[in-house]
Specification:
The protein has 218 residues and is an alpha/beta fold. It has a single domain, classed as Alpha/beta knot (3-Layer(aba) Sandwich), CATH 3.40.1280. The chain is built from 9 helices and 7 strands; from the N terminus they run H-H-H-E-H-E-H-E-H-E-E-E-H-E-H-H. The chain has helices spanning 3-8, 13-27, 51-56, 72-84, 102-108, 123-132, 173-178, 196-210, 213-217, and strands at 60-67, 87-93, 117-120, 136-140, 147-148, 160-164, 181-184. A 7-stranded parallel β-sheet has the order 3-2-1-6-4-7-5, sandwiched between helices. Strand 1 (60-67), helix 4 and strand 2 (87-93) form a beta-alpha-beta unit. Helix 4 runs parallel beside helix 5 (102-108) and helix 4 (72-84) packs parallel to helix 8 (196-210). The longest helix has 15 residues, at 13-27. It is globular, with a radius of gyration of 25 Å. It starts with a helix and ends with a helix.
């Protein structure tokens, strides 16, 4: 049908608009039913694990410790990140809230059902227990003699515990001092401050991809 014929067939302004649009497509030589590029995947195509499959899956030898994290939304976000990278366990310490809670669930989206967690009031107790078990503990902070994240090279067959602190005060100094090392995210701007859930996402992804275990998971 020609451009003129399109207009003759129009019986309303809506039809007229459609005719103009289709004529523009034809004039531009654009296939009306062109194949879609970079089609977004549906949830059903994402190969999601069930709760039982997650619990049975080989875990990344990373443990997360939350030291007095105040925001329930941040706690939920960290659960969700831990689920994404098959993190072994989360310790919730001090004032850090525990599931179930609607505000944690809002950002966790069910990850509290997959990721193992435990509440221990005294964070130092957790740090010392893990160190005694051979787990290397790293406070994520800005401190003297800190190792910059991009310089950190995890050892093969070594488990790590990463400690994230309060939104305002960070990781307690006594916890930083008790840790084996300090990891710092290099920052170049004026704030030198990241939301804890963002920090957790950056550090967990970086350590995950550097660990040899990731090669057998991905």
């Amino acid at each position: 049908m020609s451009f003129f014929d399109n207009f003759l067939c129009c019986s309303s302004s809506e039809d007229l608009n459609k005719a103009v649009f289709s004529s523009e497509i034809i004039a531009a030589n654009i296939p009306i039913f062109a194949p879609m590029e970079n089609r977004k995947l549906k949830n059903s195509e994402l190969d999601r694990k069930s709760v039982s499959e997650f619990k049975e899956a080989k875990k990344t030898p990373i443990i997360v410790i939350l030291d007095n994290v105040r925001s329930l939304n941040n706690i939920g976000s960290i659960f969700r990140t831990a689920d994404a990278f098959l993190i072994q366990k989360i310790y919730l310490c001090g004032i850090t809230a525990t599931p179930p809670h609607k505000d944690i669930q809002k950002t966790a989206l069910g990850a509290t059902e997959t990721v193992a967690w435990e509440y221990v009031e005294n964070v130092l107790e957790v740090v010392e227990k893990l160190k005694a078990a051979g787990v290397k503990t790293f406070a994520v902070e800005q401190a003297e003699n800190a190792t910059m994240l991009h310089d950190f090279k995890p050892e093969n067959d070594q488990s790590y515990a990463l400690i994230f602190g309060n939104e305002v005060k960070g990781v307690q100094q006594k916890v930083v001092s008790a840790s084996d090392e300090v990891l710092e995210i290099p920052q170049l701007g004026s704030k030198h401050s990241l939301n804890i859930s963002v920090s957790a996402g950056v550090v967990l992804w970086d350590v995950f991809v550097k660990m040899s275990v990731s090669k057998s998971i991905l």
